[in-house]
Design the sequence.
């Protein structure tokens, strides 16, 4: 009978430990999402520009051994409209290249749990579950996402499950709030049998297409217009806030 007092003392501690573990599963990964402030250039943060197309500049991190990209461009729409297009995950199918399935599994006040399936050429398809958070800091709108494989559906035969995938979007108003300067950062390890160096060598080529696809989801097409530098975007956003 002497075990009962010890059990009663142990139970609250065990419950607390379990609660903490679940909290880490749910919220822990979000700290990994990289969001370099807009007043710091990607070049200063260790990225090098690898291409520019129709006003979209694409950067690759100089030392990362997995895919780690950044991109900057302009949308001819206010940040709230761009944010809505980014969060319209079901609407990405058939618009954003390679996305063959995109479902919102759960939804909260400022978060989504999203499953996506990518149809890739040559190599096996990939899929992942993302914990997506969104919000605003002053006039800046932002999104952060992190892979959360433990919260998604079971792995499917013939599809490689991605477990390392995190990134962010930052959206700053420019041109009096009528347009948006956007910075995207993403890190992903495609896993499987694909050598990391091979995946990294071909990365970044389709990033401009992502911006173009998102423009199609905007009310008026969100055309590119003139390229915008990070400093110009930040200054214009601050001016619009005033």
Sequence:
């Amino acid at each position: 009978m002497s075990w009962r007092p010890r059990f009663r003392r142990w139970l609250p501690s065990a419950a607390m430990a379990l609660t903490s573990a679940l909290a880490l599963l749910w919220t822990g990964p979000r700290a990994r999402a990289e969001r370099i402030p807009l007043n710091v250039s990607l070049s200063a943060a260790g990225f090098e520009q690898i291409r520019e197309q129709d006003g979209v500049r694409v950067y690759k991190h100089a030392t990362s051994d997995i895919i780690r990209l950044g991109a900057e461009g302009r949308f001819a729409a206010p940040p709230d409209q761009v944010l809505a297009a980014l969060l319209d995950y079901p609407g990405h199918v058939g618009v954003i290249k390679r996305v063959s399935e995109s479902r919102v599994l759960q939804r909260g006040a400022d978060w989504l749990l999203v499953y996506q399936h990518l149809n890739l050429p040559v190599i096996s398809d990939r899929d992942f579950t993302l914990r997506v958070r969104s919000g605003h800091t002053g006039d800046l709108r932002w999104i952060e996402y992190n892979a959360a494989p433990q919260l998604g559906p079971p792995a499917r035969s013939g599809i490689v499950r991605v477990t390392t995938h995190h990134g962010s979007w930052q959206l700053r108003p420019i041109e009096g709030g009528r347009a948006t300067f956007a910075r995207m950062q993403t890190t992903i390890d495609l896993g499987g049998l694909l050598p990391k160096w091979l995946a990294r060598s071909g990365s970044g080529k389709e990033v401009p297409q992502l911006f173009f696809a998102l423009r199609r989801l905007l009310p008026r097409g969100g055309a590119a217009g003139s390229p915008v530098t990070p400093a110009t975007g930040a200054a214009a956003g601050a001016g619009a806030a005033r």
The chain has one domain: 40-241.
